[in-house]
Amino acid sequence: MTIDLSKQKEDSGISSLKTKQLNSKFKISKLLIFSGVYILTTAVVIIFLNQHTTAIDTDNLMVRAYAVSDILKKNPDTKFDESVIVLPTNTDSKAVDNIKNGAKFTRTLTKTDLTITVPNYQEAVLKNYVQITRQRSSDNAVNTIIIIFAASIYLIWIFQLYKSAKKLHQFEIDTIAKIKNIRRSPLTQSYLISENDDKVTTALNHLGETIQHQAESSTPAKKNLYEFIELFEFPIFIYDIKGTIRRSNASFKNEFADTKNLDIFSPYSDVLQFLVNKMLKPGQQERTFYFEHINAYYTVNVRPIQALDHRLMVTMIDVTTYKATTLAHNDFIANVSHDLKTPLAAIAGFADILANDQEKLAPDAAKKFAKHIVKETRRLSKLVADTLEMTRQPKHLKKIKLDLAGQIDDVLTNFELPISEKRLLVTRQYEPKLYFKSNEKHLYAILKNLIENAINYTPDGGKIFIAASKQSDTLLFSISDNGPGLTAIEESRIFERFYRADDTRDSEGTGLGLAIVKKNLAELGGHIDVVSVLGKGTTFTVTF
């Protein structure tokens, strides 16, 4: 019997392609379903709010209609404004016909007006009909806010979903490719490991079996195994049921110590307990631990060695970078969620007051609340824009010839109002036409955030000094203020995402400004230094 191997490979490739296509269609359909449900939910909320506003208008107009009816009972000749019409009993209209057919009242809606018609009885005798018309309450502001908010959340979610899917897909491809290389030549390849990924875990299990098989098939087993572990660049050691470390490779000695006792792990009680439990109940097990004294995460794998009785081999894979990336991602999402709550709560609160208590509000109060809604909406938009800027993937930047002095002047022009309101004295010292090649968008963001930061932290009536100069092929830009200055801890953290040196003094900031500055400078090849004296002020110096 002849087996066509090429035919099998071709069929396998076609099957794999079909599976990928099905998975892709399934993911797209899930995305479309969620998007449809999200849009439908937003529409339902808007409809509900509009109906609620109409119901409130109707109730208020009904109260007024019956009050007019009561007045007419006492004084039929009373005159009212043009919004009130008294209809005789023989009036021929749809509103009157509905009441004659048994309705208690009739409501008529147009795009702008609301009309209520009620019967007027005197001693159980129908005398006439009272018809009142008033302008409907507008829901445009609330509807616009809801749509902007829903669209912003949706775009952030889509962006994060795309970013996570792309990163996960690339990591999976790279990891599996690396594992295949290790399996082909386990003695000359190094490990690449992650957590919580079924495909990666399966591939690494096959890798471990391959390595173990090669180690155990060597003769004599002990000598070849000890030589074998020296080939790897991550910590490996072998210990027995008495807790004695029989052998360790160079990587373990460099990371920890050249020791013969498990007491080396005494500072890490959970790791020591894990290894001792394997002495009592030998078996393969893997766990991830945090080693505080060296500030690192390691995935520790313990495997009994069948060729060597009562001995266990421990491999330690450094997953610090992966853990740090995961923690940073989770912190970033938590911070964005936290900062979104403040403007959204304010918008919802003021909008609720405008929607439900409009009759009781004075015009000045309503205008003030509307201004607060606009202010918080702009703050929300700025947070979304800064978040997208921080999560933007680096790409090739187009650089053109720019005038640093001109760029500084453009930014200052946009901040004339806050500078005037705080009565700040801004002094500029630079030569015009300081030309150099850079990316205009990145440069503007750097200058804008540094100048805005100085304005926010400089007290009323304070001073800001801006300087720019050129030394050989290097451009220098510095900005100094006479604000409160920074402590040593604050100075070391000000470029972190969402960190503010003093929240009470920068309530309208997003906490991303200086982080964006550092990110953009890194992509442009620039550098920033900060010097601060507590109680006297701070100076930022940028070099290009």
UniProtKB/TrEMBL annotation:
One Pfam entry name: HisKA
Signal peptide: none
GO molecular function: kinase activity
Protein location: Membrane
Subcellular location, principal: membrane
Record field: catalytic activity: ATP + protein L-histidine = ADP + protein N-phospho-L-histidine
Residue span(s) of domain Histidine kinase: 335-544
Residues annotated as transmembrane: 31-49, 141-162
EC number: 2.7.13.3
Keywords carried by this UniProt record: Kinase, Membrane, Phosphoprotein, Transferase, Transmembrane, Transmembrane helix, Two-component regulatory system
Leading EC class: transferase
Protein name as catalogued: histidine kinase
